[in-house]
Amino acid sequence: MIDVKFLRENPELVKAKVALKHFDCDIDAILAFDAKRRAAVAEFEDARAAQNAASRAISELPKGSEEFKAKLAEMKDVSRRVKELEAAAGEIEKEWKRMLLAIPNLPDDSVPVGKSAEDNVVVKEWGDISKIKNAVPHWDLPQFEKLLDFRRGVKVTGAGFPFYVGDMARLVRALLSFFLDEARKNGYRELMCPIMVNAASATATGQLPDKEGQMYHDAADDYYMIPTAEVPVTNFYRDEVFEESQLPVCACAYTPCFRREAGSWGKDVRGLNRLHQFDKVELVKWAHPDRSFEELEKLRNDAEGILQKLNLPYRVLSICTGDIGFPHAKQFDLEVWAAGQKRWLEVSSCSCFTDFQARRANIRFKSAGGKPAFVHTLNGSGLAIPRVLAALLENNVRGDGSIAVPEALAHWYGSDTLGA
Predict the structure, then answer these.
(1) CA distance 179 to 393
(2) Residue 47: its pLDDT value, please?
(3) CA distances from 211 to 203, 224, 236, 356 (A)
(4) Which H, E and C letters describe the chain, residue by residue?
(5) Residue 20 has what pLDDT?
(6) Who's near 363: CB < 8 A, 6+ residues apart?
(7) What is the pLDDT of residue 270?
(8) What is d(CA 185, CA 273) in angstroms, rounded to the nearest whole number?
(9) Residue 385 near residue 372, CB atoms below 8 Å
(10) What's the pTM?
(11) CA gap 338, 408 in Å, rounded
């Protein structure tokens, strides 16, 4: 959530920044409610102070005296009024928190202004797509249906839950090992984390109350299947305080991820392009506020380095204000070239959230002699498997139909060829 003090002191700036994101959020109504909330809290606190003063005065009166009895009768009415005011203030406080949680993070000034994905800006391209030969869409490869079984996935679960079979399962495992090893080399500590989280965790990272429709929910226990390891990993330090000297703290995790993708079906969904369950390695950082955008560049470079070692042509997009996510202050997307489909596929989103998530999760740091302040959080995919796999298959088809395994991955896979 955003800083309430900043909101009160800069309402026009907040309104302008929120408008750039195109989220439906009435800042004037929120500020009006804030005034109502503060008035209700003040009324309750004044009544409680008067109650305490009256209690002290009664304690000095002779017990059983007429004055004592009269004051005691008055106190019952005062006590009842204090309870009513406390309950009212509590309900107003709940509504205030709900309204605050509906305010998106403010985009950084460096984010390009735009209305939709069409306004995202390409800031870097790497690799020569003209050199790729023999490319076909991965779903048209001769061995595709034997190595990726969508039909049985539909039978066992439903659409978007495929089986990886034989050498393809081994290749996926090799990719995950490669991604995690690269993260370790870059200073990220590996975590193995839960793949279900409670509502507090989903709220802390901004999935709630923004993406309820995209997450699978277990109503019996009120747990959510994670859409990304960002959620449990960021919450690893919820309600904790770092020493300033510890920052930045870097962690990575492999998890399966689950997304309902409500409203997404019917567009660009063939093969591996869009799944309900997929595997991903996530990179997460907790950084000093003065250095968070510098850390974002480093995180992005870590994700790019993996694509370069896999020799996958890619481009980097700076995501515009109209397309950037609810909790994001700045966001880069990495897209690989899938030569068979002749299109770019997003495989990583690298983002800085400033103190937006840290305020929700109460993650702070303490400088020497200073008061605790909120850290800045960052994360990025390093990387997501399905579309990386799609590009690997399409870009590395040999004349005989076999797939060349990139040299950097061959160590983990155990061969330089997939299929024949």
Answers:
(1) 17
(2) 86
(3) 10, 11, 21, 16
(4) CCCHHHHHHCHHHHHHHHHHHCCCCCHHHHHHHHHHHHHHHHHHHHHHHHHHHHHHHHHCCCCCCHHHHHHHHHHHHHHHHHHHHHHHHHHHHHHHHHHHHCCCCCCCCCCCCCCCHHHCEEEEEECCHHHCCCCCCHHHCCCHHHHEEHHHHHHHCCCCCCEECCHHHHHHHHHHHHHHHHHHHCCCEEECCCCEEEHHHHHHHCCCCCCHHHCCEECCCCEEECCCCHHHHHHHHCCCEEEHHHCCEEEEEEEEEECCCCCCCCCCCCCCCCCCEEEEEEEEEEECHHHHHHHHHHHHHHHHHHHHHCCCCEEEEECCCCCCCCCCCEEEEEEEEECCCCEEEEEEEEEECCCHHHHHHCCEEECCCCCCEECEEEEEEEEEHHHHHHHHHHHCECCCCCEECCHHHHHHHCCCEECC
(5) 96
(6) 234, 237, 238, 239, 240, 241, 242, 286, 357, 374, 375, 377
(7) 85
(8) 29
(9) no
(10) 0.91
(11) 19
Among all chains, which residue has been given the structure tokens 């515009």? 320
Model confidence pLDDT, tens digit, residues 387-419 = 999 999 999 999 888 999 999 999 999 999 997
For the chain, residues with pLDDT lower than 50 are: none
Length of the chain: 420
- Interhelix angle 11-21/27-59, rounded to 10 degrees, is 130
Query: What was the pLDDT predicted at 24?
Result: 86
CA distances from 296 to 28, 67, 108, 287, 323 (A): 33, 70, 13, 10, 18
Question: Is residue 205 a contact partner of residue 361, using CB atoms and an 8 Å limit?
Answer: yes
The confidence score (pLDDT) of residue 66 equals: 73
* Residue 286: strand pairing partners: 249, 377
pLDDT of residue 268: 67
